[in-house]
Amino acid sequence: MKFNYKNSLFVLLVRLFTVYVVFMLCRLAFLYFNSDLIDPIQGKDVLSLLRGSLMFDTVSIIYINLLFIVMSLIPFHFRENKMYRKVMFWVFMVTNGLGLLINVADIFYYPFKQARIVLGDFFLLGEDAFVPLLADFVADYWYGFIFYFLLLVILYQSYKCSCEGKQEFLEKNETVTPKRYYIVNSGYFLAMMVVVVFFVRGATFSAASFPIGMNDAFLYTENPTHTSFMLSNPFCFIRTIGKSKEAKALKYFDDKIAENIYPTTHNPEILEAFDIDRKTNVMVIILESFGKAHIKSLSDQFKPGQETNTPFLDSLFQEGYLFTNGHQNGYRSVDALPAIWASIPTFKEHFLSMPNSVAPYYALPQCMNDMGYNTAFFHGAVKESMGFVSFGKNTGIKNFYSRGEYEQENGTADFDGKWGIWDHKFMPFVHKKLNKMSDTGKPFFATFFTLSSHHPYAIPPGLPKQFSEGTLPIHRAIKYSDYALGEFFKSIEKEPWYKNTLFIITADHSSGADNKKFKKAPFDYTIPIFFFKPGSTMKAKDDKIMQHIDIMPTLLGMMNYDKPYFAFGKDHFDKEAAKNHFVINFSNGAFNFITDDYYYLFNEKDVLLKSDYRKDPLGKHNLIKHITKADEEDINRFKAFIQEYYTHLNKRDYLPESEKKKGLAMVGLSKE
């Protein structure tokens, strides 16, 4: 088949139109496979979403094809050279093939993160587990790769047809004069460059405009799930290149005003005493992927008679202080430790993937060292996994036990083939090391990060029949890890140090749900947070908001820590500090703010949504028209938090005032 082309610009536009077609097919596939995570699209929304989709596709296609556009329109005769045309073909196929690969991968990765893939997500490439995980991903979503190759075939066939038509045109127009050739083709080239600049700047030439960014999706909708539908990759990937070098400053107030509204240096006061003192051991247990939606004692969405996934946790939760309104402050596992150890949340990019994280800290482990604790971190993966060990060293952890240490003592038979050592095998190793730490005569501060309840949700050999299928693939793995945790507690409860230990149990992040409520903000990022000391009177169910970044100041408050420290979180039990407190996280291109009463959606400029999430969990009623003075005060506190966060991020300043000069000098940074 041949087309009758009139000029090189028309040839280029036809080829780019084909890219639009395959991108739109990706978007439809994205909607199909993620329909349960995206709110229904009403008729009144269709045109606006279509406009937004075409805008982001246009910018994606321009970014991917900029070199190809230049090669196609550069006004010189060597464009007709046979070898040059071959190079053009491969530039077209390779660049668009890579762009489509990210786009298709996003279709199936989205349920894990519930946000589009950005550059920071590629930290996994450095993981030892990446290759086996990629193999599992291909095996699980093989139909996605068939879809991807069909899209490549469409691109190939379209280009082949346009090549034949272009050659026919060239052969019939050998008599075009050089002057006319250069004038006409220079005109095409300049016109296309104007179009490129116009769309990259957001379809405007305004001097006040900037290159369109992910946040601009809210120009076309106020629904955060619809922004994910509109945004296309590789737009999200490319727009985050270089963003890790310096975070965008968001300024709403004078610096002093923002600092006064939301101070980050804490000067603790002696409060009501708990039966916790500086001789009490502290063990933080972070459960991989244990979202609140999977835990029957924390979810109101289990059907009558439905089997629990977490029988051990359900029973343990009756024996301690349970925060029933707990929230994560990041996306993935890599975000949990900065939030828990250093009270630093993750928003647009994984904090540990940013150069801004390379800085001095005066974090929870160092505070525990100051109080005479022996500090340790346990994780069954390799030491290099997700930067945990390097971050732990920087924050004051002294002892590290990972897959390497385990296999030195126990051999390699217990490696799960993907991530690390099976939970039920690694936990007795943790038990043994805790005994040795206790024998030193010093109290211990230990953090144990579980591993096995992670995709591909495998069960160890010999145990599969013990765990029934749930309503989601992850539920069997949750049941297994809950069983392993129960066995761990059975083994340690006989130790002399057990009753003198405060256990803090939480999850790193949520991991999907089988119901509408826990798929929507603010419930989609809810996790358990539980404080338990055997034999203690500290027992309650607390429905006030709590988050990862609050764990550090709350624990230090319980232990009557008396030195200034840096934290973005608040001491939950300090009534004055926790007054007007809120939870904060980031998803679908916007900030989520949750108070004890309301949920707010903020796109850096405006509050788009206010909902009474307790009475209206699906957010069907937007109360934005009923903003009160109390709301306005809360919104100012939100803005001050964001401003302070990015101010400290850009200065790499995570120290209390008393430690600032000493710490900044250590890494050659000034306070300015």
Model description:
With 672 residues, the protein is of the alpha/beta class. The protein contains 19 helices and 14 strands. The protein has helices at 8-33, 46-73, 82-113, 130-140, 142-172, 178-200, 224-230, 235-239, 255-261, 311-316, 336-342, 364-370, 388-395, 403-410, 423-439, 474-492, 548-558, 629-651, 660-666; strands at 265-266, 281-287, 321-327, 374-379, 399-401, 444-449, 501-507, 529-532, 540-547, 565-566, 583-587, 590-594, 599-602, 607-611. The strands form 3 sheets. Strands 5-4-6-2-7-8-3-9 form an 8-stranded mixed beta sheet. It has a 4-stranded antiparallel beta sheet with strand order 11-12-13-14, with no helix packed on it. It has a two-stranded antiparallel ribbon with strand order 1-10. Helix 11 packs parallel to helix 13 (388-395).
